[in-house]
Write a structure and sequence with these properties.
By secondary structure, the protein is an alpha/beta fold. Helices cover about 40% and strands about 15% of the residues. The radius of gyration is 30 Å and the shape is elongated. The model is unreliable at about 1-5 (pLDDT under 50). Bound molecules: zinc ion.
Length: about 600
Amino acid sequence: MSSLTGKTPPPPIAMNKNKTILLFLLAGLSAGCICGIVPAVRTVIAQEYLKTGMYVLIAEQVVQGLLPWMAAGAIVFIVCGLLVLACARVSRGVRSAVAIGYVGLLCAGVVSLGSYLPVVVTVRAMCFLIVFCGVLFVFRAESWLLRGRTIVVGIALLCLLVLLTATVWPTVTGMRNRQAGPSFVLIVIDCLRPDHLGCYGYTRDTSPTIDALAQVGWRYERAYAAAPWTKPSVASLFSALLPAEHGLVNPDQSAPDQVLLLAEVLRNAGYKNFFINGGNVFLKKEFNLHQGFHSYDYLPHSTRNASDLTKRFLARVATIGRDKFFAYIHYMDAHAPYTVNRHNTRYAAKILESYAPGKPATQLNDLREPDTASPELHQYFRDLYDGQICFVDESIRVLLQGLKFLGRLDNTVFIITSDHGEEFWDHGSAEHGHSLYNELLHVPLIIAGSSIGHQRIAEPVSLIDVMPTLLDLAAIPRDRLGLQAVSLVPGSNAFASNRVLFASGMMYGPEAFCLMSNENKLIYRSRGEQGKWRLRGPKLPAGNQLFDLIRDPGERHDRAATEGVPPVLEGQLKNYMRLAPRVIPPQPVHVSGEDMRRQLESLGYVQ
Ligand SMILES: [Zn+2]
């Protein structure tokens, strides 16, 4: 019949079993590579790793993007290849029926796995299976494959070459970097005020371990957080950007991918990074501040304490051999509600039943309104707070002993600080997130270890400077990163006499901004609520407030009304305020879920 119509039937294709399976395997690898390269490239572009020269991270993203897809492609295609061989002699109708049944079975299998897999992975896998099975069976793609085998082999080899290069290159670079640079332990003790530590002049012996580190390291007497609550402050600590620049100032915002974080830069330089969060909900993964960390541990504040965090940290370090590491540990024990521990009664003469540690009633947030707490209750909370500091200090002592036992103490630098302070009715209110006064912005900052020597630094510095400092200590070039913050290594240009520091990003009430020079502090608070959480407690003045930080460190006497604001300071603060709204808009995330709400309430954050 074909000769009558003038068409010549295609010659039968020889199907050697082994060669066919190998060809299907290579085709599967190619298909997987093509599928995987798209999300990998999208991630690299979104994170702007090319712009900042994070080449090892680019290679990592490529490998992470390709491997699962290539594995899936190989498995799906080999199974298809076997079925093609089995169906080689049957009619097209039977083949189509087998194909439909097969795709249906695979989809059912993936759907049944759906409860164990993230939705997005399930959907992708289903699309992958349907498309490739459909192409292979219904459209007889195996004949195209067998005819174009040279092209298929070529593409597959190219894909394998890409994968091999991306795998080997960071390993080689990592080996090169492994030799140099100290490890880092960045310890943030949430809500810690420097004036409650012995090394900052406190009369109680709350912090013997931290004091000992301050004795041998660099102690910054006037270090300031860039915001008065966790999320914007830690975002600044991690990014060297001010709150008006990174824009992460609302409870429901998540860090944009393109903001480059300290852990990403260190990871690119071969560090192994651990994030150990003692239960602060604003540092949960959905807020995207864990970028660059190899592991992330969330230990709920309600059931775990500083001792558990230290144990988890030591367990992590024990798994990495001699690799250098960067650990971020966020202790929550000095954050209300206070946990039950052996130091509860160290300063509090007796525990008040209605404000006992472990009970939600110890939330300071409930005592913001004027006249809700007596002077005795104020002192009771300070006593409990000091006991919590003792407990964290003890856990840091165990941490140092553990590192010594692991042989990792000598080449490790410790950075001890806080994300913000805590108000104990200094300006008539309690807790944090509501003002820019020093009880919330002044934080301890101690950098010690690895024989860096002792220095006491009296000039004002900001927590945004921690990132360039650590990069300098690790000898990682930072010229391409475009950091505005400066290194705090003594003798560097951080201590220029005309430097001004900024802070902003309120949790409660209207937005406020402040500028700090060596002598002056200018606070501007806008009017209105601007969609923030309701401010409880005494009403704070709108407009400008000006304080003399040298003669009036407690910020009692506002000079703005009597002396006016120097135009230079006002101009500098206005320039800072113009940075918000930001170039990179942070992404809102859904935080109204019941789980998140319960956790926010457990920490005393209520709308
Ligand atoms: Zn905090």
